[in-house]
Design brief:
6-stranded antiparallel β-sheet, dTDP-4-dehydrorhamnose 3,5-epimerase activity, mainly beta, isomerase, dTDP-4-dehydrorhamnose 3,5-epimerase, RmlC-like, 5-stranded antiparallel β-sheet
Length: 181
């Protein structure tokens, strides 16, 4: 696997080395030891989540804070998503910046979203199945969030605003300037 840096500190794209022939293909999706050697980041994950969403669905921007903070390794198993990581670590040189990448089963990319980052994605295909590996367990009381359309962050979600579908919870998240973490 290849690790590529993004413009955000500690946020990485993971590209697999694909072995392909007339029978199909094979690749190692993740290797904890290699990941830790190449990035210096923790590569041990304890929880896997899968979501299915439809065109126009936008989930985010979410994080877990404090002792329950989570790093995530995300990928798209079916369809196409625009995946966004936002550096919300106040002591980071890239604080308040975001990075987006298209994730598909065809490109087989994964995005490593470190602890202290917000995360969200929008669905660009008819349906999408999305995978999240987390390095800490979900803890409801440790949720933090920022509204998806915050003007300070100015995230491009790659969707016309009129097609965006949000959960009730995601419609009422705080602004970046009023964040709850």
């Amino acid at each position: 696997m290849k690790i590529k840096e993004t413009p955000l500190k500690d946020c990485y794209i993971i590209e697999p080395n694909i072995i392909e022939d007339e029978r199909g293909y094979f690749f190692e999706k993740f290797n904890e030891k290699k990941f830790e050697e190449l990035t210096g980041m923790n590569g041990h994950f304890v929880q896997d989540n899968i979501s299915k969403s439809f065109y126009g669905v936008l989930r985010g921007v979410h994080l877990q804070k404090g002792e329950h903070a989570q790093a995530k390794l995300v990928s798209c198993l079916e369809g196409k998503v625009w995946d966004v990581a936002v550096d919300l670590r106040e002591d980071s040189p890239t604080f308040g910046k975001w990075f987006g990448i298209e994730l598909t089963p065809e490109n087989k990319f994964q995005l490593y979203v470190p602890r202290g980052f917000g995360h969200g994605f929008s669905v660009l295909s008819e349906t999408a199945i999305f995978s999240y590996k987390c390095d800490n367990f979900y803890h409801k009381d440790s949720e933090g969030s920022v509204i998806w359309n915050d003007t300070d962050l100015n995230i491009d979600w790659k969707l016309p605003q009129e097609v965006i579908k949000l959960s009730e919870k995601d419609e009422s998240l705080p602004k970046f300037s009023e964040r709850n973490f």
